[in-house]
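Entry 0007
Protein: YigZ family protein
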Amino acid sequence: MTEKDTYKTIETPTEAILFKDKNSKFYGFAYPIQSENDVKQYIDALKKKHHAARHWCFAYQLGTETTSFRANDDGEPNNSAGMPIYGQIQSFDVTNILIVVVRYFGGVKLGVSGLINAYRTTAQLTLEASKIVEKTINIEFCITFEYKNMNKVMRVIKENNITINNQKLALDCNIYISVRKKDAPSLYDIFNNLFEIKITEIKN
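Output (structure tokens):
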């Protein structure tokens, strides 16, 4: 079995998908995230914008090869909001994503099963409206060499269509590259076998 080196996510936020049930309004939002700090910023902004709402329930997942997630019911009965939202993140197989469902209470209680259905459906509709993209899992390397070996290094980079993230070119040069995970071992070997050239993996 080949190791997975792609993942699915969204690139741009998805705004306000509305689901109604017994006078309650549920607004779904999806955001691409890279850290827990992003989560806090998006939720704080929604609380300001929808300050009259009753609940701001959410779930998020971060990571590609190893993932972490959190689900929050924000005052709704246990597991009636956050986990149904997270279930849709799993169902659509997306990561680095935050889904928030903002609820305006309409005066009629929905019961736990009604809440589960409402939050799950809102998350599903939000994901269906989102532009989901597939990205590759990349490994980053730093190539260190003397300036005289520049042509040798650049030839390998060009031949293999490698993305350069950053470079520091002086007497001693550093070029930072990212390579698709499945191509990383063979590329590492190419540079490792070149005379006077050092390649090291950058661990995030």
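Curator remark: Residues 138-202 form a domain with the Alpha-Beta Plaits fold (CATH 3.30.70.240). DSSP finds five helices and eleven strands in the chain.
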